[in-house]
Design a protein that fits this description.
CATH architecture of the largest domain: Orthogonal Bundle
Mean pLDDT: 90
Strand order of the largest sheet: 1-3-2
Radius of gyration: 17 Å
Largest sheet: 3 strands, antiparallel
Number of strands: 6
Distance between the termini: 41 Å
Structural class: alpha+beta
CATH superfamily of the largest domain: Winged helix-like DNA-binding domain superfamily/Winged helix DNA-binding domain
Low-confidence stretches: none
CATH class of the largest domain: Mainly Alpha
Shape: globular
CATH topology of the largest domain: Arc Repressor Mutant, subunit A
Helix content: 40-55%
Order of helices and strands: HHEHHEEEEHEH
Number of helices: 6
Number of domains: 2
Length: 139
């Protein structure tokens, strides 16, 4: 795997300790973190970092297609370092977001939609909602 500074440089982004830390947290996390959660995780490493810097860095990295922003209607974004097209599962109870595998039927759906609309779909974001295994057990 490429080193973080090279990944940032390949996206034509300035290499800063803050960008490296934010990307590292996202790329190593199984969760889809909010800016506020990233901010709290970085306080020990970068005690002077501001929430504004976190938001600016997340916006810059999203525009560079280094990370993706996930908006599932909770008035804030969550972020994912996996930019490959894949669907997400959102638990309606605990609000956790999980990556789902990209199954062949998703590619088929995309092709069918393009054919039926005589169009070219550039990207897709698919969210499914329900109860995660933990919340399903409690239900």
């Amino acid at each position: 795997m490429q080193q973080l500074p090279e990944i940032l440089k390949s996206k034509k982004l300035k290499v800063t300790p803050q960008r490296i830390s934010i990307y590292k947290i996202l790329s190593e996390s199984k969760e889809h973190l909010s800016a506020e959660h990233i901010y709290s995780l970085l306080q020990e490493i970068h005690p002077t970092i501001s929430l504004a810097t976190i938001y600016k860095t997340l916006g810059t990295c999203t525009k560079a297609n280094l990370i993706q922003a996930i908006n599932v209607g909770e008035n804030s974004f969550r972020y994912d370092a996996n930019c490959e097209p894949h669907p997400h599962f959102v638990c309606t109870k605990c609000k956790n977001i999980y990556d789902l595998p990209c199954v062949p039927s998703i590619s088929t759906l995309k092709t069918e939609l393009e054919d039926s609309m005589n169009s070219n779909i550039l990207y897709e974001k698919i969210y499914v909602y329900g109860l995660c295994p933990h919340c399903k057990e409690e239900h």
